[in-house]
Amino acid sequence: MAGVYNKKYPVVKHEETAPGQRLLCLDAPEIALGSAPGQFLHVRCSEGRDPLLRRPISIHFAEREGGRVCILYRVAGRGTSLLARVAPGDHVDVLGPLGRGYTLPSAGERVAVVGGGIGAAPLFFLLAEMRKYYGRYLDRVSVFLGAHTLEALPGAALIREMGYHLDIATDDGSGGFKGTVADLFREASGNRTFDRVYACGPPPMLRVLAAAVGPGPAVEVSVEERMGCGVGACLSCACRVRSAGGAVEYAHVCRDGPVFNLKDLVL
Amino acid sequence: MNLGVDIGGIKMKNPVATASGTFGYGREYAGFVDLNRLGAVVVKGTTLLPRPGNPTPRIAETPAGILNSIGLENPGVEAVIERHLPYLARFDVPVIVNIAGDRVEDYVGLAARLDGQPGVAGLEVNISCPNVEKGGLAFGSDPDSAAEVIREVRAATRLPVIAKLSPNVTSIAAVAESVAMAGADAVSLINTLLGMVIDVNARRPLLANVMGGLSGPAVRPVAVRAVWQVFRAVKIPLIGMGGIMCAEDALQFIMAGASAVAVGTASFVNPRAALDVLEGIEAYMRDNNIGDIKDLIGIAHA
After folding, report:
1. Domains in chain A, ordered, with CATH?
2. Cβ contact, residue pair B28, A229, below 8 Å
């Protein structure tokens, strides 16, 4: 597998960005250089045998020049609790970059970027790349982010600093639209047309989104599934897709995704 | 230092193989592992016709282990012959194809079809998969039906025949004796242990298929015990597997009586695990002045 690395990389930054959310940056020049938005790292949370498996975590952003790659994760279980303890100077065993990422937009396309909660993490890398290669069309990009509360919303300031128009949704109404980001997007798409939509979030959000976008735009979504090896060997992370011939079959999130065309997914 | 072993006619340059279902068709790990250095590659369970596999979730993490219910997802024997075996044939490594079926005739058809395929060094007969409704474990849990499958496969191919045994039985030694009598050239042990996990928030089984097969370090003592018992029961060579993460784990199997070992779940955690195990065995032999790996096989029985 060309361009996939498995090494222990030094931690250069590790901090809490919101309650229960942490940003981990590694000095990993070859990964920073070789990764694309939407790809993920398979992270070993501890040296021990329990918990055993790596954790797939999407790349939050990569600084190609600085050689740094960062992940934004939620401390949710035993693995991420152990990962939360690593400190700058420690090393983290990473396998990556893995998977297929997002396709950048074509010139002039009207773009929507839609993310819910911690699932929005990979969209920052996408927005940074779009700013670099799609900069003159930034006014054609609308970003929609949602979270339970304003406090849990990742990186709104950063997105505005990058020069994007951002609309936010919170479940509790503590900021922006009161409701889910999929509902916010549905309202917005009433008076705006998009050629391309990028999204990331749990299946219920994707279902609402699928209903809201209609048949027009190309929609790329990042999918989550319980994963084993990360390289297409164990076949654990199956998800249902519609093949070219129309039959429903299994694809594998680690190898065929995690980014899929929404029209191919059987949600 | 001699690391070579002969598994029922399969000449392995060292005793470290990859376990079926954990190493894809080799190419998934070729960026991390020089396949030429492996003792053997055992490919994913192959059926006559393509199988889509089970619904998700298919995997759950358990204490020091994993529970899986993939359900033998594979593209079928014709696609394996067309797409995967030619790739593996480019390497200097024996390829063992794991075969699985619902009926005895399926196994026979697979054995006949794979006989003479370039690069195929042997067949591992999966009579122990816990994740399919028919076949699999249904054959392997009874000494007589296990023997029937092996006898028919033996008659259908010139390739070495390895019976892969299940630990989900009262006496694994009895099943081993039965398949040895039926003509098996070797046995692989163990397949996964049947288990389950309940999601207490959903109040439902976590795996979509309810039950799955347990693997990883959690099962290793069970597997070492099985190798020990079967070594005493049969004369044919054994391939030991179950939770091998490092060379010390592998040496336990060899000392219990395994002529070769297979690294499985460990590859998910460390893609280079099989080579790390091999290098660790070499270091152990060097440190202890062991000139031939055969001097360690079954030594714990002495």
Report:
1. 5-98 (2.40.30.10), 102-220 (3.40.50.80), 223-267 (2.10.240.10)
2. yes
On whether residue B222 sits in a domain, the answer given is: yes
Asked whether residue B129 is assigned to any structural domain, the reply reads yes
CB-count burial class (<10 Å; 0-12, 13-18, 19+) for A15: exposed
**If you search the block for the tokens 């219920």, which residue do you land on?**
A204
Nearest to B31 among A4, A225, A226 (CB): A4
State pLDDT tens for residues A222-264: 998 999 999 999 999 999 999 888 889 999 999 999 999 998 9
Chain A CB within 8 Å of residue B275 CB? no
Cα–Cα nearest to B61, from A110, A226, A6, A84:
A226
User: Which of B52, B64, B268 has the CB atom closest to A49's CB atom?
Assistant: B64
In a domain, B205, yes or no: no
Residues of the domain holding B253: 5-53+71-193+214-301
B205 interfaces chain A, CB cutoff of 8 Å: no
> Which residue among B129, B147, B162, B273 is the active-site one?
B129
| CATH of residue B270 | 3.20.20.70
Q: How far apart are CA A241 and CA A266, in angstroms?
A: 5
Contacts of B129 in chain A (CB under 8 A): none
What's the CA gap between B229 and A155, in Å, rounded? 59
Q: Over its length of 302 residues, how does chain B's per-residue pLDDT go in tens digits?
A: 999 999 999 999 999 999 999 999 999 999 999 999 999 999 999 999 999 999 999 999 999 999 999 999 999 999 999 999 999 999 999 999 999 999 999 999 999 999 999 989 999 999 977 666 666 777 888 899 999 999 999 999 999 999 999 999 999 999 999 999 999 999 999 999 999 999 999 999 999 999 999 999 999 999 999 999 999 999 999 999 999 999 999 999 999 999 999 999 999 999 999 999 999 999 999 999 999 999 999 999 98
B129 belongs to the catalytic site:
yes
- Say if CB A119 and CB A150 are below 8 A apart: no
The residues that bridge with A219 in the sheet, in sequence order, are A197
* Number of domains chain B contains: 1
Is B269 in CB contact (< 8 Å) with chain A? Answer: yes
C-alpha pair distances (Å), B272 with each of A37, A235, B35: 27, 19, 11
Residue B70 with chain A: CB contacts under 8 Å: 234-236
Beta bridge partners of A113: A143, A198
DSSP output for B220-285: HHHHHHHHHHHHHH-SS-EEEESS--SHHHHHHHHHHT-SEEEE-THHHH-TTHHHHHHHHHHHHH
With respect to residue B64, please indicate whether it lies within any of the assigned structural domains. no
Element of type H or E holding A21: strand A21-27
Give the one of A2, A228, A231 whose C-beta lies nearest to B271's C-beta.
Answer: A231
What is the distance between the alpha carbons of residues A77 and A153, in angstroms, rounded to a whole number? 20
Of chain B, the end-to-end C-alpha distance in Å amounts to 22
Model confidence over B56-114: pLDDT tens digits?
A: 999 999 999 999 999 999 999 999 999 999 999 999 999 999 999 999 999 999 999 99
CB contact under 8 A, A233 and B269: no
